[in-house]
Amino acid sequence: MFSTFASDMVRMHLQQLSLVNFKNFGEATVEFSPKINIITGQNGIGKTNLLDAIHYLCMTKSYFNPVDTQNIRHGEEFMLIEGWFEREGAEEYITCGVKRHQKKQFRRNRKEYQKLSEHIGFLPVVVVTPEDSALIREGSDERRRFMNAVIAQFDHEYLNDLITYNHILTQRNALLKHLASKGPAHYGDAEVWDMRLIPAGKRIFEKRKQFISELVPVFQKYYSTISYDREQVRMSYQSHLAEGDFGELLRRNFEKDLILQYTTIGIHKDDLLLDLEDHMLRRFGSQGQQKTFLVALKLAESDFIRQWNGQQPLLLLDDIFDKFDDDRVQKIIHLVADDHFGQIFIADTNRNRIRTFINETRSNYRIFEVSNQGIHLIESSDETK
Question: Do 161 and 200 form a contact (C-beta atoms < 8 A)?
Fold first, then answer.
């Protein structure tokens, strides 16, 4: 169902990043290490923004603010992000330009994409940030967003099905509101939309089900490693489509949908159940346990993308070590420094602790400091070893 595993891993890393009027940066250019990059500086100074610019080039949008114009520096009319990547030995020049009141321009090697979805998966990326706690604490839409973001990076048919499903769902909900305002209605009035909704929904369900079944063992392995086997976690996929035929479920719930004026059955209601020692993680997990859960989940995500996409994703770790003791920080650093992972970006205020653990791995690294004066390289393994 998914793409075939690639035996020859595609190597990819970001060589240089240039920013103009992006968030709090006026102008900045950074040249990165192909392995580990540590971004230090005080809180609120722009470390996260630097990582977000990398995400923009990989996923065509911000990880934190989906409204492009709101990422333009205050008082300016445009922003520009440029990235020079090395991929399979060739240079890839990726640019994203946004002007107020104009369409976003996203280019690969100076050729503009007709559809932004064509770029998804070309430069895979995994982000771990404190804001990901919403995946545990907030509603099911956050967990569906997680599944969609991962699967779409290696399966364009899934992304197309998702776009189709959401479009048809919008049309069906509009019809339900119209029918409710007219008076008595029959299922046949909605059947034309259901015949288009059902195939896309079924394919999405099957791919989500396979994704979670393959992700869970890897996720549990990482959690066990980081937590030193102190507790057990579980994650399971919940969907209406596991309860019966999608078409029959839609037909059976039509009267309810008509009363509520929206579609109550379908993959747009899917969820992931997250448990710690047979209890809900959201209610009973400590902050440290929840953060360990998120880190293990994102490392498993990186493994999954690497297996099915055939590329090592960039891994962006944004201020994730707060609430962790030194043992867990050391374990995570040693995990990601391994050749199993590709290029790593770590934003953290505790430069000395991160440097100490990275030196233990003997990996190549560069340390940058972000301040009001810009972004400066302050240490490189080439100079210290």
Answer: yes
Q: What does pTM read for this prediction?
A: 0.86
Instruction: Match 């920080």 to its residue by tokens.
Output: 329
- CA 98/CA 120 separation, integer angstroms: 18
CA distance 81 to 77: 14
In the chain, alpha helices (H): 47-59, 134-137, 140-151, 156-182, 188-227, 246-252, 254-260, 281-284, 287-309, 326-337, 351-361, 381-384
Measured between alpha carbons, how far is 209 from 21 in angstroms, rounded to an integer? 42
Write out the two tokens for 72.
Answer: 């333009």
111: Cβ contacts below 8 Å, ≥ 6 apart: none
Q: What pLDDT is recorded for position 383?
A: 57
Beta bridge partners of 311: 10
pLDDT digits (tens, 9 = 90+) for 93-126: 999 999 999 999 999 999 999 899 899 889 999 9
Pick the CATH number of 140-292 from 3.20.20.70, 1.10.3980.10, 1.20.1050.90, 3.40.1360.10: 1.20.1050.90
Of the chain, the end-to-end C-alpha distance in Å amounts to: 46
Low-confidence ranges of the chain (pLDDT < 70): 1-8, 383-385
